[in-house]
Amino acid sequence: MYIEIGHFALILAFGISIAQAVLGLTFWRSGGHIAGYVKQAAILQFVLVAISFGVLIIAFTTSDFSLSLAAQHSHSLQPMIYKISSVWGNHEGSILLWVLILVLFGAAVAVFGRNIPNDLRTLVLSVQGVLSASFIGFSIFTSNAFTRLDPAPFEGRDLNPILQDVGLAIHPPLLYIGYVGFSVCFSFAIAALISGRIDAAWARWVRPWTVASWTFLTLGIAMGSYWAYYELGWGGWWFWDPVENASFMPWLAGTALMHSAIVMEKRSALKIWTIFLAIMTFSLSLLGAFLVRSGILTSVHAFASDPERGLVLLALLGVFIGGAFILFAMRASSLRAGGLFAPISREGALVLNNLFLASATAAVLIGTLYPLVLDALTGARISVGAPFFDLTFSILMIPLLIILPFGPFLSWKRADLIAITQRLAGAAALTILATIVVFILRGATISLAPIGFLLGFWVSFGAIADLVYRAKIGRSPFIKSIRKLFSLPKSIWATALAHFGMGICVLGIVSVSVGESENITTLKLGQSAELAGYSIEFVKAEELPGPNYKIAHFEFVVSDKKGNERLAVSEKRIYVASSMPTTEAGILTYGGLSQLYIAVGDADKDGNQVVRIWHKPYILLIWYGTIFMALAGFLSLSDRKLRIGAPKKAKTKNILKSKGAT
Length: 662
Known about the structure:
The protein is an alpha+beta fold. The longest helix is centred in the middle third of the chain and has 33 residues.
């Protein structure tokens, strides 16, 4: 019975979302009761969808296999965390999670958007209502998560083994918050085009939602990258997989949107471009949903292979993206360009930033879609792999990284490039020195690696130089400078943290790309292998039981150059329900930054165990960098100036009272 309650709650939310969309779009100028209804409808939708999603969690955690979804994607022996993550480890459940986050953002706008004018807020919530109605309808009519089985099976089929991991329990929710959060930016853009309200205040209202979405998308991508690294057993952290690209494109466009919104807020410039980016970013999120669920590509990240549901998603994609850009084309000509500025200015730097980010997004989009379009039109199958993406993306990112440290030093409207270059002289000197030291330590071999290290150090030291300059360190008493440093606005700290994180990430990428070494060999018990100064001895192999799988357990004693010994454990797991294997790599961290990675393969005909060993220098810098970037986002969101949006106008009666009091 409780499952039917969850289904009914979702149907009721569908009806409310339709009414919210229709009434809001029709009577958005009316205010009063209509504005109140739209606001309450957004909140009620969240409550109903939360009930619906909660019912799914109950069914999975209690192993109620009368629910078809639980029978297909869960098992009574699964640990509790994987019973819960099984809810979204499939197409139907993941769509409902998408809907839950979508209505959560709608409710957040209703609750926290008090400073937004009633007419604009009503329009924003109405567009959110259209999105909610579409995806709730998609869930009900094509991806019903509440189908029952009669009779119910005694046991479930189990969740896909590679999804039974803590990383995959965390990765999809974080990613979806980022994806779906950009729907608010999309709704603000559509509302602005309908109402004609496009000004600095609009940019101020949009920025918190952009920053929040970008922050969670950053964490989601980083978590997915780390999961692929340690769980899939091949030691790679990025493969330019089409589904990886599908999450990376909104991140690039969202980064551009964040910077563009700053220019619009501060200088009332780039209005048309900011609206375009708000539409494009969410459009790329919708494209990602289509790629993952349409069945047009094969990936470990893909949820479904149903062409019919793919066609429905494609239709929704066409309606939303096509409709938004038609409206944009109709109204863009009526928008005023905004303030003027010199090329050498902070606005100019942010425009250049947007140019490179937009070009990078286009390059990834073309490389991802071209093989699919060619296959659909001609039947020819080609592969666009890492060499294409590495080359095109690097060419576009190098100039962006060069100009990145200049941005925070530039003043609005017009700046003195020579003076700014002088302020960055110390960062440049440290960059060159650090690169020379790394070049010598690596053996002074001729390669392109020093360019990568130069860029990473330049961006990192440039971010630190901004804080040093603003705190007047070295130009005023030390104690006074330290006080000033910690009293700097949160926005300045957030910018420095984000840029520093980007530099650290670049250093990690370059280090592991040029310094990685591997040894693929076969070992018997008692035999050793050597790699990068480490000795790896195969000391133990045994069979062990697991909660819902059998374990082939392998132990290795790793000795470093100083003779210190550590134990590394690698496993192969065979899941009982599906008989599918997974690899659990043995990973040892050295110096907090580098890792030794050991994965065990199958035994050969002579009984020797295939062992793959990688040494990955400074690879953790990649994920430390993303953590710094995410912290920058949270720090920015904690800034009251960003949270409260545009100030409310004082009420006339309050002004009159204050005059009377004086």
